[in-house]
Amino acid sequence: MSTLYHDLTSAKQFHSSRLKGKVAVVTASSDGIGFAIAKRLGYEGASVVISSRKEDNVNKAVITLRSEGINVEGVVCHVSNAEQRKELFETAKSKFGGIDILVSNAAVNPAVSPVLETDEKVWDKIFDVNVKSSWLLAKEAYPELMKRGGGSIVFVASIAGYQPMEPLGPYSISKTTLLGMTKAIAYEVVHDNIRVNCVAPGIVSTKFASAITTSDAAKDKSLSIVPMKRFGKPDEIAGAVAFLVSDDASYVTGETLVVAGGAYAHL
Ligand code: NAP
Fold first, then answer.
1. Whose CA is nearest to atom 13 of ligand 1?
2. How far is the CA of 191 from the centre of ligand 1 (A)?
3. Of 4, 191, 194, 199, which sees the most CB atoms within 10 A?
């Protein structure tokens, strides 16, 4: 039985044509927040290329999204794999004619430990996937966005990027890095008609967060930092991303939108 968190119940109301004619590439999008983002961008009219590491997951997600009338292609892409990233962008070009929107959503947290006790291999893995791959995806998408006369990039960071979550120190630092990368790239490409923004989700009910959202003790501890006293839903993050990549955010660049139920977010 699949454990994929494919929630199709709440987003249908967002059918709109805000992203009609746009092509979006979303990484880590066969499940969780990435899947919700792909679905939402598709509901708003975009053609979407979804991707993740496991072919089975990609295929299932494609079937689900197509059953919703979304124009979607799926590609196996581990974001650290250069060949697979190339295939991701090639698919967007060959199937949909180009790329207007990149959502860099993949992240890992292979082990938890205090920052100064973290194994170097764990540190490298976290920074390779969460930071370096996001940078490479943006770098590789850039010429494609230029060909379209502009576009939009969104990085998915975390509330932990503002306030390090113990014991997720290295992961938290990687997410803080994305806030800086958003600003740095946004200023560099501002005259290319490309906007670069970031979303910082709070604690969202997905497989990734299950360790801190499922047991009663963990749940109480996690919710203690959330004024709304509930976890976020993937669709609530997707709504923020859809706003940022749409013309409704035409005067917004270099920003991070915190979607965290009121959790304190200040560097
Ligand atoms: P999730 O539910 O566990 O979904 C992970 C998705 O990513 C799956 O589709 C998985 O599919 C894919 N994936 C994992 N590693 C990948 C890789 N190296 N390359 C490509 N795809 C990969 O996770 P999530 O909670 O939606 O997290 C998505 C993003 O939100 C992450 O950047 C995370 O840091 C951020 N975030 C999450 C929370 C939260 O509370 N959930 C809070 C703040 C920020 P495969 O297994 O097939 O690869």
1. 28
2. 32
3. 199
